[in-house]
């Protein structure tokens, strides 16, 4: 009866301890509690848990109950040590010792520490393999069969707890990995969202997000029958800052501008977005009347009167703003933005640093020009310009001696735009300076490419505009275009109009002299159309004259034209200058000019201006093989 009661008591405690073990948070606590449980269940003085590594051939005393834990935990023995725990691990059967004799004690690291004299050991199995051993010890009071049964059951339940613990650990690890993956993915998603909807430089919504928001605001404005304002902003002369101080400063300025715009438009329903470059667009969806938007525009313009502090520079920038209103100035987002853009151009026209409200007449022909200017301003960045080339031919030797670079604008909607439509506008707006620089660099590079491809060397002629001489450092630009392309200066000829020569001052003269010393040649274009004066021909380092095509056109029928051409050719000879007749379209014109001793000609008779690649077959062989001009030479 007493034994049964002891057995039941033991089972009760076992149940209690298994529940406790299940609640343990980590392996160390679990193992120590496991030992404490064993002590209580079989009323032992002390107990230990040994983990068994059968493949590794070792056992490790992992934990012990009570104060023994720090002393025993971590002790390792080989499975062959012959200690009590090692024997149980190897045999996989319980071991009860009523008396621990000296040789046993000597063999066992644990018993060297604990001075116990009776022991009970049971194996712990997981998946049919011994993975541990629970050992209980007493002083002078041996364990019996009931103790053995209880400890075996405890070991069995404990192995399930440990298995459970391991599974939970795996689960937790997987959950953590999943969480990490989810966190990474949600981002990644956020990055994609940022990239798709926000401008990378300023962090402002981009055009796409702006359009979405504008659609929503328009729908709301329609429902509530309220007005809505769209503003189009462009920084005045931003390009000058960008070109002089560099793109890094330019970028920082744009970031500072974005911050200031956000300060000015903080109300719910305001969206400030970057349209691209130095252009920003804003929607004000909670305006009750037009003057609210005007107030915001004034606030922005005044806000720009404070300098922007960028990288130690105090930069003063102004802005021009155009405003359009829903429903008055447009029913759709596109119309509102376009009309605000028109109004912004009006603001530019009015001297910049101001705002203009859209008016329908802005959408008329006068604004076509503004629109052209607008797209011209963007064309360079968008790489819409290309160069065509037209050969100048030495009719005596039947050779191409030069290629004139002639710029074309590949307008995304209008197709190829001829220079007559945009060069004057570029000249007027100053855009000719960066455009001319691009032409120069591209032409030098192309000529070098031809030379590198093994074609006979020839000159490349580049047209210079008056503004390029007045503005910017022409010498430096030419030098860097030559350096960059590796073109020898003697293969570059700059064409300037008579007008430039006549209006030029000492500064221009000095520029030409430096260019000449560098080895670059100068030609006078459209010769004879201005008030030609021998004086400047003597003064300037000129190498060639081009007889304007207006004299060539009727040279076969108009004796005056023939006389002028003849005089120019004779004068050029006297001054030791080359003469090129331009606009030669017919064999008859060629014959008259040849009779006048003009050796160099250019015109549709030989070739219309064309992209570089079209000249490859011609340049690779004798010039005469091209078209049929060999027959006329
Ligand atoms: N009717 C007729 N025309 C012929 C004939 N042969 C050539 N042409 C045209 O005459 C113009 C010659 O160039 P330009 O006198 O320098 O006159 C150029 C030049 O002043 C200006 N231009 C062109 N490219 C540039 C450039 O890169 N920079 C500057 N600053 N001006 C340029 O635009 C002007 C017009 O250029 P394009 O339209 O390319 O017109 C070219 C060429 O296409 C012909 O046999 N018959």
Task: Report what the structure shows.
- It comes from Geobacter pickeringii.
- The protein is an alpha/beta fold.
- The protein has three domains: 2-171, 2-Layer Sandwich (Beta-Lactamase), CATH 3.30.450; 207-363, Reverse transcriptase/Diguanylate cyclase domain (Alpha-Beta Plaits, 2-Layer Sandwich); 406-626, Alpha-Beta Barrel (TIM Barrel).
- It is 49% helix and 21% strand.
- Strands 14-15-17-18-19-20-21-22 form an eight-stranded mixed barrel. It has a six-stranded antiparallel beta sheet with strand order 3-2-1-6-5-4, with helices on both faces.
- α1 runs parallel beside α7 (145-197), α2 (27-42) packs antiparallel against α7 and α15 runs parallel beside α17 (474-485).
- The model is unreliable at 621-633 (pLDDT under 50).
- Ligand C2E binds next to β15, α14, α15 and β19.
Structural domain tally: 3
Compute the average pLDDT: 89
CATH homologous superfamily grouping of the largest domain? EAL domain
Bound molecules: ligand C2E
General form: elongated
Poorly predicted sequence stretches spanning 5 or more consecutive residues? 621-633
Assess the beta-strand content as a share of residues.
15-25%
Task: Describe the structure concisely.
It comes from Geobacter pickeringii. The protein contains 24 helices and 23 strands.
Structure characteristics:
633 residues; alpha/beta; Beta-Lactamase; Alpha-Beta Plaits; TIM Barrel; eight-stranded mixed β-barrel; six-stranded antiparallel β-sheet; 24 helices; 49% helix; disordered C terminus; binds ligand C2E; cyclic-guanylate-specific phosphodiesterase activity
């Amino acid at each position: 009866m007493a034994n049964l009661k002891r057995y039941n008591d033991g089972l009760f405690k076992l149940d209690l301890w298994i529940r406790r073990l299940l609640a343990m948070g980590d392996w160390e606590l679990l193992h120590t509690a496991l030992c404490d449980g064993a002590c209580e269940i079989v009323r032992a003085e002390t107990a230990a848990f040994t983990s068994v590594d059968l493949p590794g051939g070792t056992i490790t005393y992992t934990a012990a109950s009570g104060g023994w834990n720090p002393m025993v935990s971590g002790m390792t023995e080989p499975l062959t040590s012959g200690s009590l725990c090692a024997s149980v691990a190897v045999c996989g059967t319980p071991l009860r010792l009523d008396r621990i004799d000296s040789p046993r004690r000597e063999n066992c690291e644990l018993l060297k520490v604990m001075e116990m004299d009776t022991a009970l050991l049971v194996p712990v199995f997981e998946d049919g393999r011994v993975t541990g051993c629970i050992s209980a010890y007493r002083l002078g009071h041996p364990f019996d069969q009931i103790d053995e049964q209880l400890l075996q059951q405890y070991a069995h339940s404990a192995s399930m707890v440990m298995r459970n613990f391991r599974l939970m650990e795996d689960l937790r690890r997987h959950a953590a990995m999943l969480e990490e993956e989810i966190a990474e993915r949600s981002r990644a998603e956020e990055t994609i969202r940022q990239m798709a909807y926000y401008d990378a430089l300023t962090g402002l919504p981009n055009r796409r997000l702006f359009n979405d928001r504008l659609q929503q605001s328009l729908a709301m404005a329609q429902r509530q029958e309220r007005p809505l304002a769209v503003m189009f902003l462009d920084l005045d002369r931003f390009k000058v800052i960008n070109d002089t101080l560099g793109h890094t400063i330019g970028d920082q300025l744009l970031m500072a501008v974005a911050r200031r715009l956000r300060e000015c438009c903080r109300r719910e329903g305001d969206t400030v977005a970057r349209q691209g470059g130095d252009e920003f667009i804003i929607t004000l969806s909670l305006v009750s009347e037009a003057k609210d938007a005007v107030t915001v525009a004034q606030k922005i313009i005044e806000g720009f009167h404070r300098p922007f502090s960028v990288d130690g520079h105090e930069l003063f920038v102004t802005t021009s703003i155009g405003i359009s209103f829903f429903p008055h100035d447009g029913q759709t987002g596109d119309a509102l933005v376009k009309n605000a853009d028109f109004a912004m151009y009006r603001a530019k026209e009015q001297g910049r640093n101001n705002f203009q409200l859209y008016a329908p007449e802005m959408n008329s022909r006068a604004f076509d020009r503004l629109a052209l200017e607008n797209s011209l301003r963007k064309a360079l960045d968008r790489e819409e310009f290309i160069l065509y080339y037209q050969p100048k031919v030495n009719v005596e030797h039947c050779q191409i001696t030069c290629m004139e670079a002639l710029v074309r604008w590949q307008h995304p909607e209008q197709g190829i735009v001829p220079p007559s439509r945009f060069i004057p506008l570029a000249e007027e707006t100053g855009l000719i300076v960066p455009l001319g620089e691009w032409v120069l660099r591209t032409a030098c590079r192309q000529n070098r490419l031809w030379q590198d491809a093994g074609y006979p060397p020839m000159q490349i002629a580049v047209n210079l505009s008056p503004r390029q001489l007045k503005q910017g450092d022409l010498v430096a630009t030419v030098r860097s275009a030559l350096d960059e392309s590796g073109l020898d200066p003697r293969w570059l000829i700059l064409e300037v109009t008579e007008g430039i020569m006549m209006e030029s001052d000492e500064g221009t003269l000095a520029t030409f002299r430096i260019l000449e010393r560098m080895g670059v040649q100068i030609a006078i274009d459209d010769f004879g159309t201005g008030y030609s004066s021998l004086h400047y021909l003597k003064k300037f380092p000129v190498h060639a004259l081009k007889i304007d095509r207006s004299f060539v056109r009727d040279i076969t029928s108009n004796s005056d034209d023939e006389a002028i051409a003849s005089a120019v050719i004779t004068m050029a000879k006297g001054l030791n200058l080359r003469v090129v007749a331009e606009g030669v379209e017919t064999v008859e014109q060629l014959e008259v000019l040849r009779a006048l001793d003009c050796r160099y000609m250019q015109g549709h008779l030989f070739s219309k201006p064309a992209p570089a690649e079209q000249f490859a077959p011609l340049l690779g062989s004798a010039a005469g093989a091209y078209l049929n001009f060999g027959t006329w030479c």
